[in-house]
Structure formats: C-alpha cells, structure tokens
Prior knowledge:
By secondary structure, the protein is α+β, with helices and mostly antiparallel strands. It contains 8 helices and 15 strands. The chain has helices spanning about 30-40, 55-65, 75-85, 105-110, 115-125, 155-165, 170-180, 240-245, and strands spanning about 15-20, 45-50, 70-75, 95-100, 130-140, 140-145, 150, 185-195, 195-210, 230-235, 260-265, 270-275, 280, 285-290, 290-305. α2 packs across α3 (about 75-85) and α6 (about 155-165) crosses α7. The two termini are about 15 Å apart. The mean pLDDT is about 90.
Amino acid sequence: MSPAARAPRTIREVVALVNPHSRHGSATGAADAAITALRARGIGVDVRSGTDALDARRVAAEAVAGDADALVVIGGDGTIAGALASACGTSMPVGVIPAGTGNDHARALAVPVGDPDAAADIIAAGHTRAVDLAALQAGSESMVFGTVAAIGLDAAVTERAVAMRWPRGQARYPLAAVAEIARLRPHPVEVTVDDEVLRLDAVMVAVGNTPTYGGGMRVCPDAQIDDGLLDVTVVAHTSRSRLLRLFPTIYRGTHVRHRGVHTRRSRSVSVRSADPLPVSADGEILGVTPVTIDIRSRAVEFLVPAL
Length: 307
C-alpha cells in the first residue's frame, strides 16, 4: 500500500532523545554529528537523554506533550520503541537518526543508516508517513512496537546477543543463534491467528509489522508497515543441523519456502506454550508467554524521505 501524499510539516524546533548506551555507548559520536547536522539546517535542538529505559519513556512523554515540531530519536530500535509509546495516537511526528545495532525501524522507513547528514535532511524536509504499530501484552508487561516481536528461539538469541560484549554490531546475532540452537528443545505451542489455531512443537514465532529484525534479518519478508496487518512466521521444531542450515536463509527471507515454516497474516495473534517462552519486541526483552499482539493501524507519523 502506498503511503498517502501529504503536505510537509514545518520543522523548526525538535526534542532530540539520545540514548548514550546505544551500541554499548559507541553511538555518542553519531549523536554529536546528528545534532550538529540538525542545527546546521536551522533547526533548534533540545537534547535530552534518560538514565534508563523507563526514564527515556518519561522524557519522550514530556516531549510529546510540549511545543516542539517533532520528536527525534538518536539511537536504536529499543529507544525508538520507548518514544512510540508516547507518540502513538498523537499528532507529534517522530524522526529517526539511526545509531543503534539493528536499526530496523530505519530500514523499514528508508532512512539511511550511518549517514547523520542524510537523516537530518529528511527531518528538515518535514515529509511524514502514517504507519502501523503493534500492541503487545505478555503477562503484566505491555508495550507498543514498530518492527517485530520474537517468541521462543529468536527472543533467546536477542537476549544473548544484547548481553554479548564481543563482537560488536550485527555479527553478534549469528554467534548467539548458534549457541541457542545448541541447547534447543521442542516446545508445544498454540498460535491463534484471528480465528485459526495452529498447534505444533515450535522453535520460534515471529510477529512482524515490518520485514526485518536483528539488523536486517528478513524473518517476515512480506510484511508492510502500513497495511493494517501483522505477518506471522512460525518455525516448527526440527533437528539442530537443519536449523543451522535454515538460519542463514532468514537474511534473504527465503526460509519461508522451507517445509516446517508456516506463514499467516492477521490483525491479532496470541501465543500460548506449555513452558514459558521468552518474548522480545524491537530488540527489547519484555517477558514470557502467554502473549497477545494486536495491530494499531496508522497509529504514528514518522518523518520519512519524500516520495
């Protein structure tokens, strides 16, 4: 679905939410460059950062309630997710200057990664796009997310990768995957997709509002950020050797052609399991199953490249 054309916003003043801990603290240089680039384009920048994830959400809420023309996130997908909780359902546009490990929001929005000047140009131009978010509930924990929710193996891989100090960047994910596959065991799950129920021993369930997670892994390759639907990918349990062969195909999105990989599309998804399985979204570990996820159509506006 093509985003509706709309007149660009006038962007004169922004609140910049900076995560100093993105990429284990190595993103500070990118943040400095991004702030300099915004100011060079005549944009006033109120720089703020949170001491932790909860404090960052407070800062984002204050920014959305204020008089700025946009909330600009300088960081990774987890920092963006915290901002989305505040911007969801409001008229405040969100700008992204990617400075994290995965940067999958930026990929879905065609915002260049590793180029603060190009990202600043997009924000200054003021073109917006209304996109979907997903609302997730896992036990007493809840959040809205923009990219992919992972349940099972992929959530465990994310948890391990985030904790790794070496190597930096996306190279952590394949190493974490090999380690988690080595200790894998089957988990009976029940996946309800709208009115259909799938019962099987599963390795993982991915629920995507966008195609990628983990820095470009195309786990839900046909997902679209503004179609009002969630894409669901369920991988049935199989041998460790077969999973190790399957894993690299996720980067290309061709895993969905393999036997034992089930795909669906829906507005709501719930996952129950015999054993509690880890749940993550936008690269952040949230809780364990059971989990429910619902789409929120056109819930937030991002500043994006002009069509």
